[in-house]
Amino acid sequence: MLLGVDVGGTFTDAVLAFEDRVVTAKAPTTPRDQSEGVMAAVASALERAGRDASEVSDFSHGMTVATNALLEGRGARTALIATAGFTDLIALGRQDRAELYRLCAARPDPLVPADLRFGALERMTPDGPERGLDDSTLDELVERLAAAEVEAVAVVLLHSYRHPEHEQALASAVRAGLPRAHVSLSHEVVGTFREYERAATTEIDASLSPLLARYLRRLAERAQAESLPEPAIMQSNGGLIDLSAAADHAAWTVLSGPAGGAAGAAFVARLADAPNVLCFDMGGTSCDVCVVDEGAVQERSGGEIAGRPLALPMLAVHTVGAGGGSIAWRDPGGALRVGPRSAGADPGPACYGRGGTEPTVTDANLLLGYLSPEAPLAGGVELDREAAERAVAELAHELGLDAPDCAEGIIRVANAEMVRALRVVTVQRGIDPRRYALLAFGGAGPLHAAAIADELGIATILCPRASGVLAALGLVVSPRRRDVQRSVLLAGDALSGEAIEHVAAELGEQARRALHEPEAELTATYELRYRGQAFELPIAGPVAADPANLREAFEAEHEDRYGYSDPEQTLELVTIRVTARTPAIDVTLADGAGPDELERQRRRAVLGGTEVELEVLRGAPPPGLEVQGPAVLELPEATLLVPEAWSGEVGETGTVRLERGR
Fold it and tell me: Which of 216, 218, 140, 142 lies closest to 181, judged by CA?
């Protein structure tokens, strides 16, 4: 029996997969201690399944602990040790402006203040040590760290990606002198060149790891007390690692939550025979979007979170602050705005009846008739229409609108924000969204899917039956994965098959050893560029790659990306990344209710400014069921709105496929 639990901003979702069945459950997220909500969701799922916790064989977990701590600036008291003369590396950054046309916009301050940055008297070159690290230097640094009473230490020395000996010596000394302090080494966390990005990533890792370790220890203790196995943790790259590795390297888990949703979407898309989809995950707090090509989520070698670079492989997920709980407000210029501030899980939208008074997207959906006050949301949340009316009416008065027009405006503004996010991952990257289907999930995603598809010219919508808990399902079907990378900077005669094979084989052994899977499948990514270029293109290939084949693949990608290639130019291999992964687990998605078990009703709603009568289908729809708009499908954990121009049917795996103008 497989268990996946994903923590969202509003709800915590659980999925149990066993004996060709999938059982789902939700519980409110508990921001003060997310492990409480996790165990509540697990208990609910086990109760619904009629099974015991001791029967669970694998427990996978995705969470937002590291993400929230980074966004809120909550971290451990952290020190930075850098090569003497380079302690202000993160503060200096890349010397480019945060926003081109806003001179007052600034990047976030370093997580480590100036008084906790220490210089180490050493110097490593790409070819080896120029100045050694003596014992007196080590002793002095440890004394200064002890006097500063730090909880974590980030060690970032020049060229440690190639020669880590000095970082390792510093780690040994610090761990001996400060055994309770966490130590993050840049060659272990990142392993590549570009000192600013490597330093910033290591600083994040050191600052967040003590906080994440405390949370994971509490979760492991609670799981053990309930006879559950120790949870494996989702990384930003879409693969699982063991709990201790995640606790040691929080930077690897910053996109843990969105990665689960992307993995679940790719799994459902493959089952629905739709390998190319745009994933649109709208939950209670935020909206995550990404692209799935040929059944695999697009990846990138690094990214930026809250203005801070992360030089780590991750799924190419883009997030905006537009969810069901996003608060609508009037800006100083009199315009209607939505988000990024959210009502969250406590108190939640006004219609939850938990003390919230500000209007949200969920309140607007309720007022327009897309949600029903008679049908509780997943997790047993009863909706209070009168509370939603009061909240929206107050904003409508500020804007000089009536309440229905204000509610429609809230939906349109939220949709515009999500369309903008989808354009970031498609149009801005040279991808035509019209060639893809839109796979909508999350508790609120299917409500907005048709309007967003219309805006982007997309003709097909997919909505999984388990769309409200798809991130938890993604955790169940995700492989265990470990990435190890190293900058090699090979060009000319040095770029040989033997050199590539030697480094890749060494990295592969490290990845398998870290994964505790000696037979794990190995794949490689080679980051290449023409000499003189500043950045690289990633090319996938075998572990023992031929340079001629790499050049051919690189030039084809360069032609596709930039419109030209240069066969006469010297090619440079910058970084080799080897990935070890175990086979992914397939689960059977359960059949839905029979046609006679679906509740059928009708209710009035407002679509496009016009009042219409919706057909309402409540329950898990069976395969073969035909759907004709205008209609609403009230699925177990989500609601799908089908406007008049859309129609379709339910597939064998329970995924609803809608087509425009069918």
Answer: 142
User: For the chain, what is the mean pLDDT?
Assistant: 92
Query: CA 233 to CA 240: how far, in whole Å?
Result: 5
Single-letter code of the amino acid located at 549: N
Between CA 631 and CA 638 the distance in angstroms is 14
CA separation for the pair 215, 599 (Å, rounded): 42
User: What DSSP line would sit under 588-642, residue for residue?
Assistant: PPPP---GGGSEEEEEEEEETTEEEEEEEEES-PPTT-EEESSEEEE-SS-EEEE
CA distances from 28 to 4, 352, 378 (A): 16, 12, 10
Residues 331-353 have pLDDT tens digits of 999 999 998 888 876 788 999 88
Cβ count within 10 A of residue 143: 11
> Residue 162, SS3?
coil
Q: What are residue 279's phi and psi, to 5 degrees? A: -90, 135
Render pLDDT for 272-315 as a digit per residue (tens, 0 to 9). 999 899 999 998 778 889 999 998 999 999 988 888 999 999 99
Q: Identify whether the C-beta of residue 571 lies closer than 8 Å to the C-beta of residue 490.
A: no
Domains of the chain, first to last:
75-208 (3.40.50), 481-581 (3.30.1490)
Mean pLDDT value of segment 458-468 = 93
Q: Is 578 in a helix, a strand, or coil? A: strand
By the 8 A CB rule, do 379 and 636 touch?
Answer: no
C-alpha span between 550 and 156 (Å, rounded): 32
Q: What is the pLDDT of residues 243-267, one digit of tens each?
A: 999 999 999 999 998 999 999 999 9
* Predicted model pTM: 0.90
Place of tokens 């008739």: 369
Q: Rounded CA gap, 349 and 176, in Å?
A: 50
Contact 93, 194 (CB under 8 A): no
Determine the 3-state secondary structure of 457 from DSSP. Answer: coil
Residue 515: pLDDT over 90? yes
Provide the sign of the torsion angle of the four alpha carbons 507, 510, 511, 512, taken in this order: positive
What the block records as the tokens of 646 is: 């859309």
Q: Please check whether residue 191 is in contact with residue 488, taking contact to mean a CB–CB distance below 8 angstroms.
A: no
DSSP string of 200-243? HHHHHHHHHHHHHHHHHHHHHHHHHHTTPPPPEEE-TTS-EE-H
Q: Judge if the upstream peptide bond of residue 179 is cis by omega within 30 degrees of 0.
A: no
What own/partner pairs with CB < 8 Å and gap ≥ 24 does 493-501 have?
495/547, 495/571, 495/572, 495/573, 496/547, 497/544, 497/545, 497/546, 497/547, 500/526, 500/544, 500/545, 500/547, 500/573, 500/576, 501/543, 501/544, 501/545
As a whole number of angstroms, the distance between CA 542 and CA 526 comes to: 10
